[in-house]
UniProtKB/TrEMBL annotation, chain A:
NCBIfam families: CysN (TIGR02034). It comes from freshwater metagenome. It is an enzyme of class 2 (transferase). GO terms for biological process: sulfur compound metabolic process. Keywords: ATP-binding, GTP-binding, Nucleotide-binding, Nucleotidyltransferase, Transferase. GO terms for molecular function: ATP binding; GTP binding; GTPase activity; sulfate adenylyltransferase (ATP) activity. PANTHER family: TRANSLATION FACTOR. Its EC number is 2.7.7.4. It holds the Pfam family GTP_EFTU. This is sulfate adenylyltransferase. CDD domains: CysN_ATPS (cd04166), CysN_NoDQ_III (cd04095).
Automatic annotation (TrEMBL), chain B:
InterPro entries: PAPS_reduct_dom, Rossmann-like_a/b/a_fold, SO4_adenylTrfase_ssu, Sulfate_adenylyltrnsfr_sub2. This is Sulfate adenylyltransferase subunit 2. It is an enzyme of class 2 (transferase). Residues 43-269 form the Phosphoadenosine phosphosulphate reductase domain. Pfam families: PAPS_reduct. Signal peptide: none annotated. Belongs to the PAPS reductase family. CysD subfamily. The keyword Nucleotide-binding applies. One of its GO terms (molecular function) is ATP binding. The keyword tRNA-binding does not apply. GO terms for biological process: sulfate assimilation. Keywords: ATP-binding, Nucleotide-binding, Nucleotidyltransferase, Transferase. It comes from freshwater metagenome.
């Protein structure tokens, strides 16, 4: 149950991943149940629903499969967010769908995750969706992958089966464009083995159960490029006590910012100093990445929404340019083709983007970069975009907050692509 | 508990009796969402019920733009089945924070024939609110509505996006939600469509109470322990009087209770509690074994997908 003194290690954001029926929702149900996060009325409702849908035992997946269609079909369609806390840490869990057709919803869930838990059914081994999800999760920038080799009870807790799957996923992830550390854990989400409590069935496994691993994981960001702020809004009271107040609101990213820091206003290039800073209405001397602040500048300079304030003295400055190269997850039926036009949104800047090149799409099995004329729904590829106005950006690998962009369908207004910038051509 | 709202003093600092790292991160996230939606949309509104979640939401909204004024109005969808003091609280809290209040009335929707009052044995106006809400959004031309919904409240709410699309009929289609990667919010809509924004999506009931403690927010006193005449119905304690009438087999009695949620009086139950202040409530919530809505909302225990069905029709 939640505890008032949690979060010593900071909140950890987790996303599940893996193929359909590998047990993602059951695992989250098990985590919630065994950390005493499931309330009595929720459990009673799940027991009742399990009977109604003809499930033999209490189906813990029904704790996260909250839509009627999901419960009827026994699948996850859209991401569900759940929350739990142990005395050591608060967790935000995105339970994502396994079906290929709902990959866009998996992207939604995984995009904010520190850790992806990739489930593999021990009987079926690594499937295309296992690879797709591991690929997407690393491309989106999770810091680590846990391979939950699930349903170990159905293969007699056989160490050889586990080792084989663990090795296959580890080698696959190592070969990806953006590899991350991989940890494999043998488990049964249904029975609870190695989820919260260590299993008596895996004496050959000397690692921690899943929850212990998650509690210990260090998700602190590394490799800062220097503080930046994409200006969301200019705060101008226009009258009263604060008539002369002019503040620039946004989220600090890429590093910290402090009062007295010299900052460059981009794309204009003018330089000034931070005179004061406020967070949630309180004055602060400094702010770290992720803090939502209002910045007052020492001199009157022209700054508006879409502009970026960047530490003038940092090692890496953001790049200003109208041409960007990006990895992209495509999420709508209408394919992405050369010449197609979309809205883009990057930071607080919006404009038009024209696709001027598709370099390749990623073959998920061979990991080859295959030439292609279009990116279909759920494809991963690398494209070049010409923008209607310059953006102030970072490479996603250097600073995710400054390197992410969405494409929006001009006709339907649906979010069509999640783009991770690999280069900005100034 | 103070009964007067401490106005948001720009530059004032608030105290806390516990670690607030997680709460500060949730606060940053909520303020960022509020600023972004308010900047991208032409005519947003903040839905305010007088309950604890909307109090936190409104307070965050004021902080998001301080020292400038809140750039959008606040709207209460009034079922007419209110706890009296909630209306007094609403008027005082909204005015103390310097916000402008719009009231959309379910009674007016009934009088004008837009909806038909439920005449069953246990009438509730809860579901009728959706029509009043959608009519009011259209009447005022609001293109985005901030709501205090939280994903931990209900399994259908757990599926919600931060910024959620509603079609021209105000409907939510949970099978066709826009992808929402990262925190890059897509606020593009066509005329007649609208957005619902949920800045408190990732907050739990406990987070809400901790925020209330840190910022010393006043709440309607029915959130704290008091004595009240109730009947027990479907495992819930309903206050007798107003829309709730004791049925022949029900015996009203005096109970020591508080409310865990504040909604339409016809379907909001009290819980037995001696929690007299915000710290008592935090201790109680941390030890609770029943969900907030399961303990207090008759409308959600009615069927397995009650919330999903209402949300599809345009509910909060």
């Amino acid at each position: 149950m939640s505890n008032t003194a949690t979060a010593q290690r900071g909140t950890l954001r987790i996303a599940t991943a893996g193929s359909v029926d590998d047990g993602k929702s059951t695992l989250i149900g098990r985590l919630l149940h065994d950390t005493k996060t499931v309330f009595e009325d929720q459990l009673a409702a799940v027991v009742k629903a399990s009977r109604r849908y003809g499930d033999g035992e209490t189906n813990l997946a029904l704790l996260t499969d909250g839509l009627r269609a999901e419960r009827e079909q026994g699948i996850t369609i859209d991401v569900a967010h759940r929350y739990f806390a142990t005395p050591n840490r608060s967790f935000i869990v995105a339970d994502t769908p396994g079906h290929a057709q709902y990959t866009r919803n998996m992207v939604t869930g995984a995009s904010n995750a520190d850790v992806a838990i990739v489930l593999v059914d021990a009987r079926h081994g690594v499937l295309e969706q296992t690879r797709r999800h591991a690929f997407i999760a690393t491309l989106l920038g999770v810091k680590s992958i846990v391979v939950a080799v699930n349903k170990m009870d159905l293969v007699g807790w056989d160490q050889a089966e586990f080792d084989c799957i663990a090795k296959e996923v580890t080698e696959y992830v190592r070969a990806l464009p953006t590899p991350v550390p991989v940890t494999a854990i043998p488990m049964s989400a249904l029975l609870g083995d190695n989820v919260v409590a260590a299993s008596v069935h895996t004496p050959w496994y000397d690692g921690p159960p899943l929850l212990d691993w998650l509690e210990q994981f260090d998700a602190y960001p590394r490799g800062e490029v220097g503080g930046r702020l994409h200006v969301q809004r200019v705060i101008r009271p226009q009258g009263g006590e604060f008539a002369d107040f002019r503040g620039y609101a946004g989220v600090v990213n890429g590093g910290g910012l402090a009062v007295g820091d010299a900052v460059t206003v981009l794309p204009a290039g003018t330089t000034t100093t931070i005179r004061a800073m406020h967070r949630a209405g309180k004055p602060v001397e400094s702010a770290a990445a992720g803090h939502a602040v209002v910045i007052e500048l020492a001199t009157k300079v022209d700054v508006s929404r879409g502009d970026v304030l960047a530490m003038a003295t940092s090692g890496t400055s953001p790049i200003v340019g109208e041409i960007v190269d990006a990895d992209i997850c495509w999420m709508v039926e209408q394919p992405l083709v050369v010449g197609s036009r979309w809205w883009f949104k990057h930071g607080s800047r919006t404009g038009r983007a024209t696709v001027t090149g598709i370099d390749y799409h990623h073959d998920l099995v061979s990991l080859a970069q295959e030439p292609t004329h279009e990116l279909a729904l759920n494809a991963l590829g690398h494209v070049r975009l010409h923008l209607s106005e310059p953006i102030v950006a970072d490479r996603y690998a250097d600073n995710p907050a400054g390197g992410r962009m969405i494409l929006i369908d001009e006709a339907t207004n649906s979010t069509a692509g999640a783009a991770m910038i690999t280069a900005v051509i100034g | 508990m103070s009964t007067h709202t401490p106005p948001v003093t720009f530059g004032a600092s608030a105290g806390a009796g516990f670690a607030t790292t997680h709460l500060d991160a949730l606060t940053d996230e909520a303020i960022t969402i509020i600023r972004e939606v308010a900047t991208e949309c032409e005519n947003p509104v903040l839905l305010f019920s007088g309950g604890k979640d909307s109090a936190v939401l409104l307070h965050l909204a004021v902080l998001a733009f301080a020292p400038a004024r809140l750039p959008f109005p606040v709207m209460h969808v009034d079922t007419g089945h209110n706890f009296d003091e909630v209306i007094e609280y609403r008027d005082r809290f909204v005015s103390d924070l310097g916000a402008r209040l719009v009231v959309a009335s379910v009674q007016q929707s009934i009088d004008s024939g837009r909806v038909v009052e439920d005449t069953g044995p246990r009438p509730s106006r809860n579901r009728l609110q959706s029509v009043t809400l959608l009519d009011a959004l259209a009447e005022h031309g609001f293109d985005a509505a901030f709501g205090g919904g939280r994903r931990d409240e209900d399994k259908a709410r757990a599926k919600e996006r931060i910024l959620s699309f509603r079609d021209r009929q105000g409907r939510w289609d949970p099978r066709q939600q826009r992808p929402e990667p990262w925190d890059v919010l897509n606020a593009r809509i066509r005329k007649g469509e609208h957005l619902r924004a949920f800045p408190l999506s990732n907050w739990t009931e406990l987070d809400i109470w901790q925020y209330i403690a840190v910022h010393e927010l006043p709440l309607p006193t029915i959130y704290y322990t008091h004595t009240r005449t109730v009947v027990e119905r479907d495992g819930m304690l309903l206050s007798v009087g107003g829309p709730v009438v004791a049925e022949p087999h029900e015996v009203p009695y005096e109970a020591v209770v508080r409310y865990r949620t504040v909604g339409d009086a016809s379907c909001t139950g009290a819980i037995e509690s001696t929690a007299a202040n915000v710290y008592d409530v935090i201790a109680e919530v941390a030890a609770a074994r029943i969900t907030e809505r399961g303990a207090t909302r008759a409308d959600d225990t009615f069927s397995e997908s009650a919330m999903e069905d209402r949300k599809r029709e345009g509910y909060f």
